[in-house]
Amino acid sequence: MRNCSKGFSLIELTMVIVLIGIVALFVMPQDSLLNINLETAAAKVANDLRYTKELASITNTNCGVQFVANGNYTVYQASVTNPALNPLTRQNFVTDIASLFKKVTIQNNLQVEFDPLGTPVLGSGQTVTLTNGQTTASLYITPNTGFILRQ
After folding, report:
1. How far apart are CA 32 and CA 81, in angstroms?
2. What is the pTM of this model?
3. In this structure, which topology does domain 31-150 adopt according to CATH?
4. Cα dihedral 100→49→93→91 (10° resolution)
5. Which tens digits make up the pLDDT trace of 106-145?
6. Whole-number Å distance between alpha carbons of 60 and 52
7. Which of 73, 75, 80 is nearest to 55 (CA)?
8. How many alpha carbons lie under 13 Å from residue 137 in its C-beta half-sphere?
9. Domain segments of the chain: what residues?
10. Rounded to an integer, what distance in angstroms lies between the CA atom of residue 138 and that of residue 104?
11. Largest distance between two CA atoms of the chain
12. Of these four, 51, 91, 110, 142, which has the most CB atoms within 10 Å of its CB?
């Protein structure tokens, strides 16, 4: 009697999947990677704006974010000269967006500030715009509620 095996082994299937993944990396256009970076950067900025709104409520002081075109942004507490602490790093909450996300920059100077109720007192109705040179991502700060909308 012959010992005849049918099908593929787990090692063979794993190797095929790894090879397909490697080929997909080379085939994927670089533009889509830049767009992924832009979307991830927009999500980070939106989350940092939401954190700032919550920080104002928790500390019962006005807190905000100051955006500098082609530069960074600073989350501050009470005044622009008093950067808040980043809860993850315990350092001043200053984020250089271009160093975190390849080719992504802030397009406009803007200051957004929330009162302890979460209402924007500065930057209400304004838009934070990020770009990767080809595409833009916009975050709109709604008046009265301070809700952050991705446009």
Report:
1. 38
2. 0.77
3. minor pseudopilin epsh fold (3.55.40)
4. -100
5. 989 999 999 999 999 998 899 999 988 888 999 999 998 9
6. 12
7. 75
8. 22
9. 31-150
10. 13
11. 85
12. 110
